[in-house]
Design goal:
Pfam families: Ribosomal_S2 (PF00318). This is Small ribosomal subunit protein uS2. It comes from Candidatus Woesebacteria bacterium RIFCSPHIGHO2_01_FULL_39_28. GO terms for molecular function: structural constituent of ribosome. Keywords: Ribonucleoprotein, Ribosomal protein. The chain is of the alpha/beta class. It folds into 2 domains: 162 residues, Glucose-6-phosphate isomerase like protein, domain 1 (Rossmann fold, 3-Layer(aba) Sandwich); 46 residues, Helix Hairpins, CATH 1.10.287. The chain contains 7 helices and 8 strands, in the order H-E-E-E-H-E-H-E-H-H-E-H-E-E-H. The strands form 2 sheets. A 5-stranded parallel β-sheet has the order 5-4-6-7-8, with helices on both faces. A 3-stranded antiparallel β-sheet has the order 1-3-2. Helix 6 links the parallel strand 6 and strand 7. Helix 3 runs parallel beside helix 7 and helix 4 packs across helix 5.
Length: 232
Amino acid sequence: MAINVTLEELLEAGAHFGHQVKRWNPKMSPFIYGKQDGVHVFDLVKTREALLAALEVLKDYKKQGKVVLFVGTKNQAREIVKKVAEEVGCPYVVERWLGGTLTNFEQIRRTVRRLQDLKKKVTGGEFENYTKKEKLGIAQDIDKMQRSFGGITSLEKLPDLLFIIDTHKENTAVREANYVGVKTMGIVDSNSDPEIITWPIPMNDDSNKSIELVMELVRQVLTVKSKGKSKK
């Protein structure tokens, strides 16, 4: 199934609105169409081209079985990123990005294993004889770790790609990915630097509708069944 998006869909989602002119990053100039009421307006032809190219890369990554880590910690992105990532079976970070998630990955994995071990022990009843206070402390530890690491428990190795909503906000994640050699893809607004992203998608990263549109297209790409599978 061919994945497509029209200029009209991008326009309706508000993908063309950038930030105030005074907040722009000059490196975004190639993707800017003009200004309107003191706000930069994206060239949606270029936005569409970049988005479709990024979706093709994702499709190829899926075929190769590569791991995509979704990052979207801003309020507008958190819910939809988590929903799509869980649906397509990908790891995700929707709470605060913890420094060292990529650059100190082995330590992160140790913490994740501790979380998994604690949850297993709780399920197995190993804390039944603990005091109420001790049980509460364990439950609080699990809850805290679950919020921070719950989305990456399946991440056994460094991901092959970071898909980021708002590369400016998630600058720590971007820097870590570049440092360890992990490819990046993401929505890049007019205040961002597209040159530090492997596959930048120039568009509005604050609109719920624009984020939802992109994530729905991503969902479609990553749930397309491979050809050749027998039909039942």
